[in-house]
Amino acid sequence: MLPVAIFRHSPTEGPGYFAIFLEQQGIPWKLIALDEGEAVPTTVDAFSGLCFMGGPMSVNDPLPWIEPVCALIRQAAASNIPVIGHCLGGQLLSKALGGQVTRNPVKEIGWSEGCGEDNAIARQWLGPFAGKAGTIFQWHGETFSLPEEASRLLSNAHCANQMFVKGPHLGMQCHVEMTPEMIATWCEQWADEAITAADQPSVQLPEVMQQEIAARLPKMRLLSEQLYSTWIKGLQR
């Protein structure tokens, strides 16, 4: 089958567990490193699906690759090629499909819980997490609105739109792709941001995030595997 294109926007925000999951399923993937100046493909014809990772920038920034990415997402949607977005990637998906990205009332940094919706679409995507809490990881200050005809999957007290789906496409504000190595790197790279905002109940200190990896990551892995397993069913084979 054709590979899944994985778009990286920042050197330390790679595909993480998403790539591991694809490899476990025997699904090929190709990294497109926009942070290294690689061009955005002009067509989706070479890919079975598109995946967009996180990044410290905003989709509202005047960056030269943002509109070509949004155009590619719209082309994928028109061709029924599944798109998945993590954090910035979820915001790109929302923007491309007509949503808006604005400042969230608070920053969310570290481990948190999200409450799953309980309806037919949520049960399809969330499985046992529909109507229940799921563990997620956060590092964002903005949030997306739901595109027209999209369905919310997950929310919490600090950010109403944690996940949405529209057809075969999944947009996430949170990071379910994290590995221990990624968490350690982010805690070192962006420690000042977390420490500065640590007076907010939605923010954890770097040492707390790392202390909670052993207890929290296995729970989040169950959620990510449920979501990824559903998403790959739509891949073009």
Q: What is the compact description of this entry?
A:
This protein is α/β, with parallel strands linked by helices. The protein has helices spanning 17-24, 66-78, 88-96, 120-126, 180-189, 191-196, 206-211, 213-231; strands at 4-8, 29-33, 49-52, 83-86, 101-116, 133-144, 151-155, 163-166, 169-172. A 9-stranded mixed sheet has the order 2-1-3-4-9-8-7-5-6, sandwiched between helices.
Structural account:
This protein has 237 residues and is α/β, with parallel strands linked by helices. The protein contains 8 helices and 9 strands. It has helices at 17-24, 66-78, 88-96, 120-126, 180-189, 191-196, 206-211, 213-231; strands at residues 4-8, 29-33, 49-52, 83-86, 101-116, 133-144, 151-155, 163-166, 169-172. The chain has a 9-stranded mixed sheet with strand order 2-1-3-4-9-8-7-5-6, with helices on both faces. The longest helix has 19 residues, at 213-231. The radius of gyration is 16 Å and the shape is globular. It starts with a strand and ends in a 6-residue tail after the last helix. The mean pLDDT is 97.
Number of strands: 9
Structural category = alpha/beta
**Largest sheet data:** 9 strands, mixed
List segments where confidence is low: pLDDT < 50 over at least 5 consecutive residues.
none
Strand order of the largest sheet: 2-1-3-4-9-8-7-5-6
* β-sheet strand percentage: 15-25%
One letter per element, helices H and strands E, the order comes to EHEEHEHEHEEEEHHHH
Query: What percent of the residues sit in helical stretches (DSSP H or I)?
Result: 25-40%
Q: What's the N-to-C terminus distance?
A: 5 Å
Tally the helices: what do you get?
Answer: 8
Mean pLDDT: 97
* Rg (C-alpha, Å): 16 Å
Query: Can you tell me the overall shape?
Result: globular
